[in-house]
From TrEMBL:
Keywords: Hydrolase, Nuclease, Toxin-antitoxin system. It comes from Desulfoscipio geothermicus DSM 3669. The keyword Nuclease applies. It comes from the Bacteria. PANTHER family: RNASE YUTE-RELATED, UPF0331 PROTEIN YUTE. Belongs to the HepT RNase toxin family. GO terms for molecular function: hydrolase activity; RNA nuclease activity. This is Uncharacterized conserved protein YutE, UPF0331/DUF86 family. InterPro entries: HepT-like, HepT-like_sf, Type_VII_TA_RNase.
Length: 140
């Protein structure tokens, strides 16, 4: 059985990271590209937000004894297969998992313009994931 407290704690951190990212969402591309500290802060905050989503997914998969995911990206497939998230979320969440792998394993090859695009366009995907998890596990 999924532990509500684990979900609640991870969603609390995810909400904090999303709030932090939304504070920087108005930054211009020039300012973003010219400020190494801001770039690194946003990259790291995105990384932690994505990790929260992956941790929540892994917790659900483990507790519910669902099929073992083959990769981080597959965590979201397993959740969709079992109706924990809508299938229409898969493409964007899968890209987030791939971006997480890039940050962790190929951090010297990160294209700042891609990070900027994620900041501008994809924070909503993290919010939607959080909403699905909150509705499913914390609203009774």
């Amino acid at each position: 059985m999924v532990e509500q407290e684990v979900i609640r704690e991870k969603l609390k951190y995810l909400a904090e990271y999303i709030d932090d990212l939304e504070q920087d969402i108005t930054i211009s591309l020039d300012d973003f590209l010219n400020d190494k500290k801001i770039r690194r802060y946003i990259e790291r905050t995105l990384h932690m937000a994505i990790e929260c989503c992956l941790d929540i997914g892994s917790h659900i998969i483990s507790c519910e004894k669902l099929r073992e995911p083959e990769s981080n990206k597959d965590i979201f497939n397993v959740l969709a297969e079992n109706n924990y998230i809508p299938p229409k979320s898969l493409t964007q969440l899968g890209k987030m998992a791939q971006f997480r792998n890039l940050i962790v394993h190929s951090y010297t090859k990160i294209d700042p313009e891609i990070v900027y695009t994620i900041l501008k366009r994809n924070i909503k995907d993290l919010k939607q994931f959080a909403g699905h998890m909150h509705k499913r596990f914390l609203e009774s």
